[in-house]
Amino acid sequence: MDRTFDDLVAEAEAVSVDGWDFSWLDGRATEQRPSWGYARQVAQRFAQATAGLDIQTGGGEVLNEAAELPPTMAATESWPPNVAKATRLLHRRGVVVVADPDEPPLPFADEAFDLVTSRHPATIWWSEIARVLAPGGTYFAQHVGPASVFELVEYFLGPQPEAREGRRPDTEIADARAAGLEIVNLQAERLPMEFFDIGAVVYFLRKVIWMVPGFTAEAHRDRLRELDARIRRDGPFIAHSTRHLIEARKPT
């Protein structure tokens, strides 16, 4: 028997959204991964670095996937539940987790790291990244691109023409260069996502809180009910994520 709208929503509201692990969505939603394999590539760089910094580490899950970490390794995170989760996960590996508000300045000395990384940072302060990088050091990151998952965003918020222009790779390249960094590599992809039930939508929007700011199932119940009926009638709700891989270097 198909589960009711109320059951699916209640379940998705009750589950924890701490950290950056999306395994609760297994079988309920899919997202095609970028072809470049960020976790694999960043792990290779960690193994070769002497001092690393992971900005906006979430719950530390991506960082913890690396088999080998630099002798000196730090991570920043702003959301208190994620700070606690990352601390539990990463301290045993010698990583110092620093609670940081994601605003300048980064709480580290000039030229402290030869590798700075980030996966899906909400904000990117290029001047600070350049400041904490040692000469010859690398910033290696996977960023969310423009209008990512906007089929879902605009379903709830309506057209967002100005927001669609944000997070453009060409703008980020210009900002990185203005901070004194050299662009070594840039790749971009647009990737399909599928949501198979309304619970997956509720969980996703609770976890990725900047998609629909202030989202609650109660406040958006009418639109959620309409979307539930649409999924039951037409099949999965399809959206598209945008991602770009960026590698920048601080000149020697």
Describe the structure.
This protein is of the alpha/beta class and 252 residues long. The protein has one domain (5-249): Vaccinia Virus protein VP39 (Rossmann fold, 3-Layer(aba) Sandwich), CATH 3.40.50. The chain has helices spanning 5-14, 38-48, 61-64, 80-90, 126-132, 150-157, 169-178, 198-207, 221-234, and strands at 29-31, 51-54, 72-77, 96-99, 113-119, 133-144, 182-195, 237-249. It has an 8-stranded mixed β-sheet, with helices on both faces. α4 (80-90) links the parallel β3 (72-77) and β4. α1 (5-14) packs parallel to α8 (198-207). The protein is globular, with a radius of gyration of 19 Å.
Mean pLDDT: 96
Widest β-sheet, arrangement of strands: 1-7-8-6-5-2-3-4
N- to C-terminal distance = 64 Å
Report the β-strand fraction as a percent range.
25-35%
Q: What is the CATH architecture term?
A: 3-Layer(aba) Sandwich
Which percent bin holds the helix content?
25-40%
Query: What is the approximate shape?
Result: globular
**Biggest sheet features:** 8 strands, mixed
Question: Order of SSEs, N→C?
Answer: HEHEHEHEEHEHHEHHE
Number of helices: 9
Unreliable residue runs: none
Number of strands: 8
Summing up helix and strand content along with how strands pair, one would put the structural category as alpha/beta
